[in-house]
């Protein structure tokens, strides 16, 4: 059998002056972005792991922004697809830890000094995701003070209702008794569990047929936080497996700091109401 010739099937084979796959995706820029600072073999894994994570986070932020806008405009069912997609994105981010965990402590030690003070703790996109989901901490602006444009992005996010704030405003528009002080709260502050808000969500969960859209929105939020928690947990176990209890390159307490983050609840009322149903 002669070799397959894709041109005979109509495949485009000549791209002089025409857009190709590599042109459209700017593949050269992407593949030129992996610049090792040491000769260590596993530094390439470390770089690609974090660069691809940043790309997935960029998509997560794209979807988060669209989901919030849809909820605010009353197009809640449209937001469901976006929220589901964000959960799938964090599933991808979770799987990436499996690859990084193939790196041993000796592998990491061979290039760790080359990282200087750089750390995932300084990822502004991760901070944007945290802020978008409602975990807002003004102290986290400081690591980005040297980049005015990034600080401006984060400050703009702090002035905008979080995903959870938009969900609660939607409940209020439905006629549910979300307290006025919740609707008018200082958006720059982290969400604090509220018994009155839990009572509203409990009302929804006790009569899902009547409040089906709100009920489904709640479950999409729980799904999202579930995958996000798994990502945090896998982060902790990966770091402990690779560096033990050493301090992180960015100066944090490493595993100890990450374990504290496991205790953060993004949508606490949606988890706590399950105990009282």
Give an overview of the whole structure.
60% of the residues lie in helices and 0% in strands. By secondary structure, the chain is mostly helical. The chain has a single domain, classed as Methane Monooxygenase Hydroxylase, Chain G, domain 1 (Up-down Bundle), CATH 1.20.58. Helix 10 (195-206) crosses helix 13. It is globular. It starts with 20 loop residues before the first helix and ends with a helix.
Which terms would index this structure?
60% helix; mainly alpha; Methane Monooxygenase Hydroxylase, Chain G, domain 1
Topology (SSEs and partners):
Blueprint: H1 21-25, H2 27-31, H3 43-72, H4 76-100, H5 105-109, H6 124-133, H7 148-158, H8 163-173, H9 180-183, H10 195-206, H11 212-243, H12 255-262, H13 268-276
Helix pairs in contact: 3-4, 3-6, 3-8, 4-11, 6-7, 8-11, 10-13, 11-12
Number of helices in the DSSP assignment: 13
Low-pLDDT ranges: none
Number of domains: 1
> Could you name the CATH topology?
Methane Monooxygenase Hydroxylase, Chain G, domain 1
- What's the architecture in CATH terms? Up-down Bundle
Q: Please give the CATH class.
A: Mainly Alpha
What is the helix fraction of residues, given as a range?
55-70%
- Report the oligomer: single chain
Total strand segments: 0
Q: What is the molecular shape?
A: globular
Major beta sheet, specifics? none
Order of helices and strands: HHHHHHHHHHHHH
Q: From the helix content, strand content and strand pairing, which structural class follows? A: mainly alpha
Structure summarized in a few sentences:
This protein is mostly helical and 277 residues long. Helix content is 60%, strand content 0%.
């Amino acid at each position: 059998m002669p070799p397959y010739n894709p041109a005979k099937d109509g495949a485009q084979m000549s791209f002089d002056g025409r857009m190709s796959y590599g042109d459209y995706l700017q593949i050269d820029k992407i593949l030129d972005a992996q610049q090792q600072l040491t000769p260590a073999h596993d530094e390439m894994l470390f770089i690609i792991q974090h660069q691809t994570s940043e790309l997935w986070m960029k998509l997560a932020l794209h979807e988060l922004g669209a989901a919030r806008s849809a909820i605010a405009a009353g197009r809640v069912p449209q937001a469901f697809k976006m929220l589901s997609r964000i959960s799938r994105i964090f599933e991808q981010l979770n799987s990436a830890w499996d690859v990084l965990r193939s790196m041993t402590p000796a592998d990491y030690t061979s290039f760790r000094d080359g990282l200087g003070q750089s750390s995932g703790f300084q990822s502004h996109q991760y901070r944007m995701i945290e802020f978008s989901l409602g975990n807002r901490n003004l102290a986290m602006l400081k690591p980005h003070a040297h980049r005015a444009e990034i600080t401006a992005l984060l400050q703009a996010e702090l002035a905008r209702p979080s995903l959870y704030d938009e969900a609660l405003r939607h409940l209020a528009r439905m006629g549910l008794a979300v307290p006025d002080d919740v609707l008018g709260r200082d958006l720059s502050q982290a969400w604090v569990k509220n018994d009155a808000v839990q009572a509203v969500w409990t009302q929804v969960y006790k009569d899902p047929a009547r409040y089906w859209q709100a009920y489904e929105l709640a479950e999409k939020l729980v799904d999202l936080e579930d995958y996000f928690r798994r990502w945090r947990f896998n982060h902790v176990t990966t770091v402990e497996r690779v560096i033990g209890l050493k301090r992180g390159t960015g100066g944090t307490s490493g595993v100890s700091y990450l374990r504290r983050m496991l205790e953060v609840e993004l949508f606490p009322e949606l988890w706590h109401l399950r105990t009282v149903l």
